[in-house]
Amino acid sequence: MGQLPKVRITPARAFLNTGIDFCGPVWLKIPLRRMKSAPPIRAYVAVFVCMATKAAHLELVGDLSAETFIAALKRFVTRRGKPIALFCDNATNFKGADKELRNLCKQLNDQQLQMKVASFCADSSIQFSFIPARAPTFGGLWEAAVKAFKHHFRRVIGLDSLSAEVMQTILCQIESCLNSRPLTALSEDPSDMEILTPGHFLVGSALQSIPEPDLAQIPENRLSLWQEMQRRTQSFWKLWSTDYITQLQQRTKHYYRQPNVLVGKLVILKDDNLPPLRWSVGRITAVHPGADGLVRVVTIKLASGAVFDRPIVKICLLPIDDEMKSTPTSGEVTGPPDEDAAPAANPK
User: Fold this and answer.
1) Which of 29, 157, 182, 242 is the least crowded, having the fewest Cβ atoms under 10 Å away?
2) Cβ partners under 8 Å of residue 123, min gap 6
3) 35-62 b/e with 16+ CB inside 10 Å = b?
4) Do residues 235 and 177 make contact, with C-beta atoms less than 8 angstroms apart?
């Protein structure tokens, strides 16, 4: 297991370095005044995670296009401040947003001749860092946040369709639940029972909620819209808090160093979408060692000529070359016995 990235251990304000991922879909109701008996529409949730404080920010988005992602990014920057780096996977919407932002920044720099405006545009640009394709382990921080949100959100909401206002309110309350999780003790004083949470980095203290009665035992047909929304939030809290407590235990790691893979090795790629009797075989053309000298990402070229990067956990080295090096000694029978040959003499 590699060392933590620099942005994970460098003190910085909340969301200065942010990881992002999309999850969903969630279903939204269309207002009745616009269309009667209309089917629910599909929407998604953008999960922003601070790389240093593990604080979470949830944004409701309409689709997975680059324009929608830029709009969600603008809302995030307005509320949480501008990040200097975004870490995300190689989804097409992230790539499209990265291209449009680069073009916009380049256009502004070309049009403005004054050094002050050019410097401001350079300082306002956001650096995108993409993890290797099909390597969710490289984005474990935001993948864990997505899992914490999505697993219990589906158990509480399911396939129910809600209005955009109700959905946004529930997402904000779930965001508050995620940012209230304990990280460590604030001090070593035995009489101090305060804990450090991601909310401390956002508002300066632990997040507080409005006192509400327990609505779990009240039938749904007796609840108003607001009470139904609170009941769903309370259900999410009970499920998620219990699951989070059970996860606070020591995790196993890869303590033993393995030999680095070499250029030229023949490998089989792990691909779950291949049809029967098909194998994705390629040859390693380049290796990309980390700061500690260990290779975790390689460049592979397939027989079709396609070249792409893959993590080493997604490839399997073929040991054929090592097996071919072992040659039989002199006098050793390597093939099956001849059926017409005379039987061996009795050693007795």
Assistant:
1) 242
2) none
3) eeeeeeeebbbbbbbbbbbbbbbbbbbe
4) no
